[in-house]
Write a structure and sequence with these properties.
Number of strands of chain B: 11
Bound molecules: adenosine-5'-diphosphate, magnesium ion
Order of helices and strands of chain A: HHHHHHHHHHHHHHHHHHHHHHHH
Strand content of chain A: under 5%
Mean pLDDT of chain B: 91
Radius of gyration of chain B: 18 Å
Number of helices of chain A: 24
Structural class of chain A: mainly alpha
Shape of chain B: globular
Number of domains of chain A: 2
CATH class of the largest domain in chain A: Mainly Alpha
Distance between the termini of chain B: 28 Å
Low-confidence stretches of chain A: none
Low-confidence stretches of chain B: none
Oligomer: heterodimer
Largest interface: A-B, 19 and 26 residues
Mean pLDDT of chain A: 87
Helix content of chain A: over 70%
CATH superfamily of the largest domain in chain A: MetI-like
CATH architecture of the largest domain in chain A: Orthogonal Bundle
Largest sheet of chain A: none
Order of helices and strands of chain B: EEEHEEEEHHHEHEHEEHH
Largest sheet of chain B: 6 strands, mixed
CATH topology of the largest domain in chain A: MetI-like fold
Helix content of chain B: 25-40%
Distance between the termini of chain A: 32 Å
Number of helices of chain B: 8
Shape of chain A: globular
Number of strands of chain A: 0
Radius of gyration of chain A: 23 Å
Chain lengths: 515, 242
């Protein structure tokens, strides 16, 4: 019943628009013309995008293995501090880092006049994407590493040395997570819009955007979209089993014994590599943003502040609404999939998640931009629909992992005692998964708050939200103003997360969920 | 066994998990106000029998009667678990970890005001010697105490039948004995029928009124401890040797 009530809007408001562009594209009378206009140039572009994202996925996954081990398996002090700092790039909007690295390259290489501009910007995109997605890989692989039983490693250590154990036991055991990490990052990178947009790089997503918004070549844009949707959905669905079995964030898993390595060599290596990464991915970009913002005094920063201040409330409100709805849908999908084995909604959300945001944006425009649905199209509603469609799967995944860990008997005991469905959900399931509900709320919030790909397509005129403001002003503003805006977005993001974290900690403390 | 006396009746019950047949045309009657032990090695289908009686599992074939009312039939639950007037002690106890002992027990009490609930819960808890643990959480109690809370919780709604799934498996001999004595005494006090599942035949011989030995989803022997001890069934002989 509840399932149907949630599933119907998911189908009609989120999935139908995507089906719609598929149908529109195939029944387009100019289909052959459009296909003809997909020149070899376009396929080269697709290959180039795939190559860039492949490199990003490879680098990030490699970093994920090395740093995942350092962070989760070596006997370092201040592990939680390291973990928090390492994860920062994952939690700030990609374009902030893009702006920062653009600043750096301008400072060092004077890129704007350089002959190598093109090459550098690709390197820039690989660099920024690797920075953003490595933490994800560290999370996935690190969680897998800490799920390996202590005995298994120790018995291997008794037979061979550390090297043997690492290559013959650990790596094979975490192979599913390595593949998951590679595939996910490949999809994320090839669908990502804001970094190439900010760096001014022509890749497949930015090309679709240009065709759609600049040349109004909707049919071609949709055809290109379909190609990319197909690639992403194919990759994700073919890896669905592996992805749904990998752990990601293990929130609230209780005391499992993890083998920690305390040899001097390993520990010192870990400290060095972790510190270097944090300096390189967090401190350098931030310092450069600060430097650029205040190089010529505080006037640019104040100007940026006055530009962005009016956008904060709308951006925050939209992101909060979007993540509340996403968490709700995610919870329902997760509960029905884990407890009652109804997996349809999960699959829908997974596919929506795999669709690049610019393309989802196009789908929404094509579906909602008509006289009947215009009340949604011309309001904030369209943004909320976009966020919810794109990001609900994250909640499903995180909350589902937690629900899986609740013994079925806890609910059955309540069934026998005549506790009704909603009371069981409210008083038993929800309190027990509260930490992951909050975690997924925060993560959803960050994604909505930093989203550019969907927003730039669908935002109704007159809306002021942060990423769009930064993006549109950047086009014809001095570098220092953009840097100041990126810095402000970063500070606001950190402030909001801290605030949410503080509130949630208070609420969680009320429940005895950390038993 | 006269069928007039039986409070639970399983008729021609078969049950599968995907293509693994767990119960094979099982016929079983449980006598009223007695302690019946279902004895069998692990994986023999004991838990499945309890779950079928409770209505947590739908029989793939056959019928189940409780107090002469048909509660389940092939692929159908006729009377839902909460209407079967039974208490269930799960193998893992299933105490709600985020609720205190008091909340665990008061959780299902309805149609009472606050002070009535308080009186009720305190009454039950003092019966089980748990007066000092009202505000404790399950993980702050010993295994034996958790056991007592689970039983107290199951009895809060005054069921006619108590289903117990190897609840004492993890306890030491002394606590086990103490709780078994309790179980016998509450049976008298509450006028209960108890169905108790275990793989430990010594426990069964010590307190069972009736014993049913099952293996691979089929009943091998049933009757009093004396009858089981003298059984000529090969499996039963083998089973109680150990
Ligand atoms: N939910 C389930 N899904 C699949 N197989 C199950 C399930 N529950 C039990 N089984 C299988 O059914 C058989 C009997 O299980 P169970 O009734 O739990 O036995 P017992 O309680 O005697 O150990 C076992 O082989 C077990 O693996
Ligand atoms: Mg069992």
């Amino acid at each position: 019943m509840l399932y149907t009530i949630v599933l119907l809007p998911v189908l009609f408001l989120l999935v139908l628009p995507v089906l719609n562009i598929v149908v529109l594209t195939f029944f387009d009378s100019n289909l052959s013309e459009s296909i003809a206009s997909m020149s070899t140039d376009l396929f080269m572009l697709l290959l180039k995008s795939l190559a860039i994202s492949g490199i990003v996925a490879f680098i990030s996954t490699f970093i994920g293995i090395v740093l995942g081990f350092s962070l989760y398996k070596s006997d370092i002090k201040y592990r939680n501090v390291f973990r928090l700092l390492i994860l920062i790039p994952l939690f700030i909007s990609p374009y902030i880092l893009a702006v920062a690295w653009k600043d750096i390259s301008v400072l060092i290489f004077d890129i704007d006049t350089s002959l190598f501009k093109k090459t550098y910007s690709f390197i820039g995109m690989i660099l920024v994407h690797s920075t953003i997605y490595s933490p994800l890989s560290i999370l996935i692989i690190g969680s897998a590493l800490s799920n390996i039983s202590k005995q298994m490693e120790e018995s291997a250590l008794l037979i061979g040395g550390f090297k043997d154990m690492f290559f013959k036991i650990l790596l094979p055991l975490i192979r599913p997570s390595i593949i998951t990490s590679f595939v996910l990052i490949l999809i994320f990178s090839i669908s990502e819009f804001s970094v190439p947009a900010f760096l001014g790089i022509r890749v497949f997503t930015t090309e679709i955007f240009t065709q759609f918004s600049a040349f109004y070549n909707h049919n071609l844009a949709m055809l290109q979209s379909l190609l990319l949707i197909f690639i992403c959905v194919f990759l994700l669905v073919s890896e669905r089993k592996r992805i749904s079995n990998s752990v990601f964030l293990s929130i609230g898993t209780r005391g499992k014994e993890v083998k920690l390595y305390s040899s001097r060599k390993i520990v010192i290596f870990s400290y060095i590599i972790l510190s270097f990464t944090i300096v390189f991915t967090v401190f350098v970009p931030l310092s450069i943003l600060v430097y650029q913002s205040f190089r010529t005094g505080t006037s640019k920063f104040m100007e940026a502040l006055s530009l962005l201040l009016p956008t904060i409330s709308d951006s925050t409100l939209l992101a909060i609404l979007g993540s509340i709805i996403s968490v709700f849908i995610g919870f329902v999908a997760a509960y029905y999939s884990e407890v009652l084995n109804k997996k349809l909604m999960n699959l829908m959300l997974l596919i929506l998640f795999a669709i690049p945001s610019t393309i989802f944006g196009i789908a929404l425009i094509k579906f909602y931009n008509n006289s009947i649905l215009n009340f949604i199209y011309s309001s904030f509603g369209i943004l909320i629909i976009g966020y919810v469609g794109k990001y609900s799967f994250i909640s499903t995944k995180l909350i589902g992992n937690s629900i899986k860990q609740i013994p079925k008997s806890l609910e059955e005991a309540a069934v026998i005692q005549g506790i009704g469905f909603f009371k069981r959900i409210r008083k038993i399931i929800v309190p027990l998964v509260l930490p992951s509900i909050f975690a997924s709320f925060i993560i959803n919030f960050l994604f909505c708050f930093g989203d550019l790909g969907i927003s730039i397509m669908v935002y109704p005129p007159g809306t002021e939200i942060m990423p769009i403001k930064v993006f549109t002003i950047m086009a014809n503003a001095p570098e220092s103003l953009t840097s100041s805006m990126a810095l402000i977005v970063f500070l606001v993001t950190i402030l909001l997360i801290s605030l949410l974290f503080f509130i949630f900690k208070k609420i969680i403390a009320k429940y005895n969920v950390n038993y | 066994m006269q069928s007039i006396m039986s409070i639970i009746k399983l008729k021609n019950i078969s049950h599968w998990y995907s293509d693994n047949r767990v119960l094979d045309n099982l016929n079983l009657e449980i006598e009223k106000n007695k302690i019946t032990y279902i004895l069998g090695s692990s994986g023999s289908g004991k838990t499945t029998i309890l779950r079928l009686i409770a209505g947590l599992e739908v029989p793939d074939k056959g019928e189940i009667y409780i107090q002469n009312i048909k509660v389940s039939e092939t692929n159908k639950i006729i009377v839902t678990p909460d209407k079967r007037q039974l208490g269930y002690i799960f193998q893992d106890l299933a105490l709600w970890p985020h609720l205190t002992v008091y909340e665990n027990i008061s959780f299902s009490l309805k149609n009472m005001n606050k002070s009535e609930i308080e009186g009720e819960v305190k009454g039950i808890l003092s019966l089980f010697g748990l007066d000092d643990y009202l505000q404790k959480f399950p993980h702050q109690l010993s295994g034996g105490q958790q056991q007592m809370v689970a039983i107290a919780r199951a009895l809060a709604l005054k069921p006619k039948i108590l289903l117990m799934d190897e609840p004492l498996a993890s306890l030491d001999v002394k606590s086990k004995r103490k709780i078994l004595d309790y179980i016998v005494s509450i049976k008298e006090k509450y006028d209960l029928t108890i169905v108790y599942v275990t793989h430990d035949h010594r426990e069964a011989f010590a307190i069972a009124d009736n014993i049913v030995v099952i293996n691979e989803g089929k009943i091998q022997e049933s009757g009093t401890a004396e009858k089981i001890k003298n059984s000529t069934n090969d499996f039963v002989k083998y089973f109680i040797e150990w």
